[in-house]
Amino acid sequence: MRTVTGYAAYGPHEQLRPLEFTRRDLRPDDVAVRVTHVGVCHSDLHAVEALAAGSPPLVPGHEFTGEVTAVGAEVTRFRVGDPVAVGNIVDSCGRCDNCLAHREPYCREFPSTTYGGRDLHDGSPTQGAYSTEYVARDAFVYALPAGLDPAAVAPLMCAGVTTWAPLRRAGVGPGQSVGVVGLGGLGHLAVKFAVALGARVTVFTTSAAKADDARALGAHDVVVSTDAAAMAAVAGRLDFVLDTASGAHDLAPYLGALRLDGTLCVLGLPEKYEVSPMALLGRTLTVSGSGGTAETQEMLEFCGEHGITADVEVLPFAEVNTAFERLARNDVRYRFVLAVAG
Fold this sequence. Notes:
CATH class of the largest domain: Alpha Beta
Family: Belongs to the zinc-containing alcohol dehydrogenase family.
Cofactor: Zn(2+)
Keywords: Metal-binding, Oxidoreductase, Zinc
EC number: 1.1.1.2
Catalytic activity: a primary alcohol + NADP(+) = an aldehyde + NADPH + H(+)
């Protein structure tokens, strides 16, 4: 077994504390990665808050970059020293129709998540990348694009592919008008991707103060969603709207912004959606999760070609609790990343 150190949650509303634990010995198709940077995602915060009293320690972290330290006997894609990136899925059955289509997050046997899941071979719990090293199956490890900052690539492995995948499935490109709801960790990447794909981009925000930020990211138009006149002016104009807002909110205004046969894709997962059938008339509503291996690889190649990364604030690994406290207050622009090594 491989001994590593990390930061673990021991219960809700408690600070994360150092933990020494072990990673498995490498299987033939495994890659060991020295973690250099790990993103801090809202889902990390939610996972910690959801811990029940008496739960075993949980090491969060599911979007990270690092350097290969060892490879299994059958690994040919990587060698020691290679810079790599890993996301929120680290294994799947590989046999079902969804896995064969490279849509592994929808694996019918449920995939192995980077933390808070189970190893598909021995059933042991997975622990995340708030740690000095991680071991993952090579099919879920990706080469880091040359020339990109590893710290700013880490959030691409969750927030990035979560926004990239629905944009690509919708065929977003030149001549299309795309709306992005929200300008946070997900939304700012959605804007960058949609602009780079050639679309005209409108950002919907509840805060007029974010208008300059949206335009700096490349947005062509900004609509304050609480302004009824501004919302009425954009009605029926957009081909596709990507809703990145996490909290429960009214979807009808964004459905109304669509042209006939347009699509609203929602990324947030509240307990339920309440939508009038009339609002859906001639329009499509869909919900998207994360992307699979093919979409992740395509996204990384696109980012390498276009110089796209997340806008991040990097904190020392030891300041993980500072990152959590500030993230809970939404005091970040747009993503925290922890510098684990060095």
